Amino acid sequence: MKSMLHEPSLGPIVGHTTSSSARLWIRGLNGNDNSRAIGVAALFKNGRYVAGTVRYFRLRREFDRTGITDFEGLDANTEYTARLGCTLVNHSDYDEVDQDDDVFSKLPPAKAWVDDLRKLPAETSMARFSTFEQKANTGFSFLFGSCRYPGFIFDRKRSDRIFKSMAAECSNENANPARFVLMVGDQIYADLLGKVIPIGRADTPMEFHDRYNDAFSTPNMRRLMSSTPTYMMLDDHEIEDNWVAGRVHKDPQKRTLYLMSMAAYASYQWLHGPQTYGRKLFYNFNYGGYPFFVLDERTNRIRDDVDKVLEDNHLLGRPAKNAEYQGQVNLFCEWLVAQQKVVGDLPKFVVSPSVFAPNAVDAIKDKGKYRDDAWAAFPTTRRQVLQTIVNNHIQNVVFLSGDIHCSNCASIKFKSKKPKVRALRAYDITSSALYWPFPFADGDPLDYVHDSEAEGDGFDVFEDGSVIMHYTSKGFQQEDNFSRVNVSKKQIEVKTFNRKGKPLDTTVLPL
């Protein structure tokens, strides 16, 4: 008899992982309107089924038939495999809200599927992952990148090539495998040719879903995400070029576009993340004692389009007005303070899809700052974060950025007129783009400030000018690339690789 169990239509993706748990994601079968999609998963260790781990989980229509299951109680720093499949249960009423147990009761006991799971094609149904270390005493490595343009018919394979090189850096065959991957924005391009040109622009739920299915189903990317914990955050092209929240209120069509894009984002990117703050998109996680905060810099981005007053711009949403209602910027600043107390001078990694430093050369002038799409256009937010760092002596904040199609490393320093101010270091590592076939359009290294002090681009941390942020930038790369970040107690080594895995540049950042 033919099995009713099928391979996932997309995935698996290894999502949020800890030293004792792993979150796995798949997309199931489409089915008809009355069917319920069910995921089936089981865990294996050293090729043997781990007793009691097989289970059902829902693949819900509101998440485009995607879903997650969490394996918990795992051993730290240990390799596991999981097998995942899906099936359908017919239901008579499309609108009825049914409980999971009621749906699962229509199926045989989950343990009946273990052998069928083993028979599914490994390349589309198997996830392989290693749990995190409890304490990374000797350091660790991770990869990150951004901006994967999907390509046209003739270059789709080329747009996928870089993920083969990334998978090699994460493979256990590597002497020092990278432990996880950060994808820090523009995982899809919903506006293929920009918001003004309608060709290839997603404007229906199905078209947004298709963008994700096209991007996540390419063989090398699918292989990478099924074998390495992957964390994601959106930037603008998951919605529309240079997106700001004000468009939702000015145009009903933009509101509809936003709701569709966010439903797709939740299904394909947010769902397998940590979800630290409930339904909020920003989150934090930890690897072996090293903290990470992932900022949402798009969905609450406020820009004063009328009076063009920079001080009225807010990159992370409006700041809190009282202790009861905390905005993202306040939660982030509280996190920075708490982590300095917990981990001391260890790096505090901050995923910031928009670049903290360097600024674009055009942004040195006030008119250019207003047009800018990075932190330069949001001095109120930048000042609050920097004042938190300086006032609380927070050492080694490391921003991880994307967006600008030009990788580089910026070393941030604080020039103070106050005596006895602790010398502080901060960095911004930018890795972009994974694939961008139009290098003539943007990303020129000469378009960015290399030395803020020499080029007149210092930033007053305090309005009295007592502390000024300066930075120097180097290691610019416009070729398609990803970055490998090797972390130790004394330094961060940033190695940049091209699409074929050839080293492009190495920068050492002292701690």
* Count of extended strands: 22
The CATH architecture of the largest domain comes to 4-Layer Sandwich
Over all CA atoms, what is the radius of gyration? 23 Å
The third-level CATH topology of the largest domain is Purple Acid Phosphatase, chain A, domain 2
Number of domains: 2
Distance between the termini: 62 Å
Output the CATH homologous superfamily of the largest domain.
Alkaline phosphatase D (PhoD)
- Placed side by side, the strands forming the largest sheet appear as 12-13-14-15-17-16-19-18
Average predicted confidence as pLDDT: 93
Shape call = globular
Strand content: 25-35%
CATH class of the largest domain: Alpha Beta
Q: In this structure, how is the largest beta sheet organized? A: 8 strands, mixed
Going by helix content, strand content and strand pairing, the class is: alpha+beta
Give the low-confidence spans.
Answer: none
Number of helices: 12
